[in-house]
Amino acid sequence: MISGLLLTSCGSGENTTTPQTPPASSTKPAATTSVEVEDSASFTIKNPGRENVVNLNDRVSVVIPPDVLPEGTKVEINQINQSMEHGFNGFKPAGLFEITSSAGSQLGGEITLEFSYDQSSLSAELESADQLAVAFYDEEYKAWQEVDIIINEAKSSVAVKTSHLSLWSIFGLEDKYVTSTLPGFTIYFNKDVNAPVIGSVASGDPIYEYAAIVRTGLYDASKAYSALNLKMPDHTRVYIDQWDSDKEAELGWFSKNIEIPVTYIDEQELHMVSAHELFHAVQNQYVTFATMAANRWFMEATADYAAAHIATSHGLKDSLPYSYLKTGISSSSTFHMYQTAHFIKFLVDNGYGFKDLFEGVMNGSGNALANLNTFISSKGGSLAELYNSFVYNVLFTSIIKTEALQTDLFSDVASITENLDLDAGGTINQTINTDQSYASSLFGVKISSKKHEISPVSISAIEPTSGIRVQYVITSGPDKESVIASDALTHEPLEIMLEDGNYLYFIVTNSAPSNGYVTITIGKEAQIEPYTNTRTAKIYNDKFLVDVDFTLNSARPFVITREEVFGDTLQLDIDFEDNGKPVMLDAEAIVSNLRFAEPESWSEYHEPVFKEMYWSYGGEQVNSSSVTVTLNPDTEWLVSFTYEL
Are residues 270 and 392 in the same domain? Predict the structure, then answer.
């Protein structure tokens, strides 16, 4: 291993300048607060039609192809004796150079920068490319950005091609790092750190076992991602070290290196972390880091899914909290974007292949959410409908891995709750706001009644804004998997049947890019008092007596317009309020205690008995004391009860 990297002489080109004595006071590069110029060289282009070379003591050369810079342009190299934070773990700077031109930092074409290095200071056991790095200081992001290098071992030089002049530095590997290689990767790990003991430590040192686990995770992930024919990086550097306590594994924006701290204590988790970060490197083959940052929710969600279900078979580690549904799927809040992996899994489980879905979004022209919508539509689906189904399954099935409820959906999850007494009736009007795109709200209503019967209730979703979808769900109790019925709800009133102990839920989802709302209306007429008639009737020419208990029930308000008794017949005329829907009528006639009106007129050998009792209506006969009749509107019906002796 090398402890330093010395810049030595290499071949010079034509039009080479001679070294200049450093000025007493130097210019101030934008990236530094104060600088000390150690050495410098400059050259003014006199013949732009030929190749020009600026060389600083054979430490660094600037090779300018023909017609890239105009005549009279001054190119200057300043070697700066100052260290700067660079963020490249495992490497230390071996030379800092400010390269400028009087024509500005952006050039009209590519030039070549050549940095020399000391071949004898490199380890013979490693490739030179694994021990050297070159980067420039990005003024926009205030960070060092590593670039691809071309190594010429015969000349002991490292070359880069660029059209940008700035602060440049060459870096060499630090002594404390040990390397491990496999196709497509070089793993650097700090041999001096205290790594946790994971499993059996065959090497005798936990850091070596830790690195071996990372190596296995990367190998398996690379093999799995390649099998999907995803775009893979040619080579990735991986660093294992001990950073601050809050350091998490990450892919460097500018270095494009994977950094994994020694804070993971589980082999399975370490495999998944390695696979997760490698998938970020895969994403970077499709889009820039700026695009990744702008759509981070999709990057983290797909990386988590890929690590859990493609690179490994471990599955998503964390259960989905119900609070996830209140925030839009494209939110980049810290934990939420990782939890969106559950939605990605739901899409894959519903037939949208992961590779097609991933590349459809990455290759689209809009943001990730818009591209996802376009991709789903191209396959004949609806993202809004899929999200609505996802929310339903989170709330009312066990398909999605969710956190355990402390009590029940009504108490723990519903953002708004009401109670509806079926006996008292009344109307509930509740406005539900869902203020983010692809987020949802849950409105819960607990049903109560002292009567053991099912009652009709009218529900509707009034004036929903664009993108709002409403789904009602009836459950038999507080348990999430006790669904009786569910369906979409619109502004058209819908009659449903409820009873004591039921729960009525309304799922409100929003697929619009802005706040959405809807008013849920629940209507229950006050319980109609049944009509009753209890009497002793004389029948069959007044020869017999019976006790009659008659009850008439309907959930629809009704009025008895005529009530008359003709001999042994009770006649009722009933009017119902017409709302264009059929009327359900429940009637019961209990006829008992049949006896002679004048017992002395009959011998002891005679006894009256019922021969038959039945209801008749619409040409049908029901042999029972009770009947339920459905009456169509705009018609007159005759319903009668008959008993024969």
Answer: yes
Say how far apart CA 274 and CA 311 lie, in whole Å. Answer: 10
Which among 129, 159, 175 is the end of a domain?
175
194 lies in a domain? yes
pLDDT tens-digit map of 549-572 = 999 887 666 777 788 887 778 888
> Do 198 and 266 touch, CB atoms closer than 8 A?
yes
Work out the percent of the chain whose per-residue pLDDT is above 70.
89
Cβ–Cβ < 8 Å for 536, 547: yes
**61-67: long-range pairs with CB below 8 Å, 24+:** 61/10, 61/12, 61/13, 61/16, 61/113, 61/114, 62/99, 62/111, 62/112, 62/113, 63/13, 63/111, 63/112, 63/113, 63/114, 64/111, 65/109, 65/110, 65/111, 65/112, 67/108, 67/109
Residue 407, pLDDT score? 95
370 and 291, same structural domain?
Answer: yes
Domain that holds residue 165: 37-175
- Name the residue type at position 583: V
257 and 234 share a domain? Answer: yes
Pairing of strands 258-261, 236-241: parallel
Give the integer Cα–Cα distance in Å for 400 and 325.
12
Query: Looking at this protein, which amino acid is placed at residue 377?
Result: S
Residue of higher predicted confidence among 237 and 17: 237
End residue of a domain, out of 120, 148, 175: 175
Closest of 151, 203, 200, 141 to residue 172, by C-alpha: 151
User: For tokens 């008639």, what's the residue?
Assistant: 533
Instruction: Give the Cβ contact number of residue 592 at 10 Å.
Output: 10
Q: Report DSSP state, residue 403.
A: P
What pTM, to 2 d.p., does this model score? 0.67
DSSP state for residue 274 in the 8-state scheme? H
Radius of gyration from C-alpha coordinates of the chain: 41
Higher pLDDT, 28 or 499: 499
- Rounded to 5 degrees, what are φ and ψ at 346? -60, -40
d(CA 317, CA 521): 40
**Which of 373-386 are b and which e, b meaning 16 or more Cβ less than 10 Å from the residue's Cβ?**
bebbeeeebebbeb
* Residue 607 burial (10 A CB sphere; 0-12, 13-18, 19+): exposed
Number of structural domains the chain divides into: 4
Which pLDDT value is given to residue 32?
A: 36
CA proximity to 2, closest of 170, 252, 149, 184: 170
Selection from 258, 255, 253, 257 nearest residue 289 by Cα: 253
Q: Which letter does DSSP use for residue 29 in this model?
A: -
Q: Is the pLDDT of residue 7 over 60?
A: no
Query: Residue 70 corresponds to which amino acid?
Result: P
Mean pLDDT of 74-101: 80
pLDDT digits (tens, 9 = 90+) for 388-414: 999 999 999 999 999 999 999 999 999
- Indicate whether 150 pLDDT > 80: yes
In a domain, residue 11? The reply is no
CATH of the domain at 487: 2.60.120.510
**CATH number, residue 96:** 2.60.220.30
Shared-domain flag, residues 382 and 271 = yes
Condensed to tens digits (0 to 9), the pLDDT of residues 260-282 reads 999 999 999 999 999 999 999 99
Count of CB atoms within 10 A of residue 243's CB?
15
- Is residue 589 a part of any domain in this protein? yes
Same domain, 321 and 229: yes
What is the three-class DSSP state of 103?
A: coil
131 inside domain? yes
Residue carrying structure tokens 């008659």: 550
